[in-house]
Design brief:
- With 179 residues, the protein is of the alpha+beta class.
- The protein has a domain at 54-95 and 131-179.
- It is built from 5 helices and 6 strands; from the N terminus they run ααββαββαβαβ.
- It has helices at residues 2-7, 22-32, 56-77, 111-117, 156-168; strands at residues 37-39, 46-48, 81-83, 87-94, 132-138, 174-175.
- The strands form 2 sheets. Strands 3, 4, 5 and 6 form a 4-stranded mixed β-sheet that branches.
- A hairpin with a 3-residue loop joins β3 and β4.
- The longest helix is centred in the middle third of the chain and has 22 residues, at 56-77.
Amino acid sequence: MLKENHQQKEIRIRKYITDYGIQDYFKYYKDHADSWTLKSKFDLQEYEFGNPIVNKQTYRKILFEYYDTCTKEVLYNNESIHLTNLGTISILKSKPKMYNQEGKIKLPVDWKLTRELGKKVYFTNDDRDGYVYKWTWARKNMKSRSLSWYKFLPTRKNKRELTQVLKNKSKDFHINPYK
């Protein structure tokens, strides 16, 4: 009986899909692109696209180019990305509290220096006057209530590019007004 149960694999069907990716976006685009029309604000005429469907590789290139453009605007021009009804994505700086309520040090440990010196050494960000910089998603003026369940995580590439911008000291970002 144990062997029978072990050999039968349970297939679990997800009730709610929580992760969407480029494949899902492309499928939606391919299914709906032929019915799209463009209305001009000025003369209220409808313009139909010829054949708006592009292949998957071109679609990926367009998306990645758009994402890179948005990232560069935030990193190098100190702009914010305003998502309609979804809030704002930007980079903000804030000064962390050094001690918690019990009086213990709250800063992250620099493990490399700690091992070399034999005593605990903390990251203090002296080169940036103690400020910490992060990608943030400000949910102020958001019209959807259900989006509070979501979380914004920048890609590793974007985090590392922010680090490079900060090391070059080419930009300074806004102070976080929410802290």
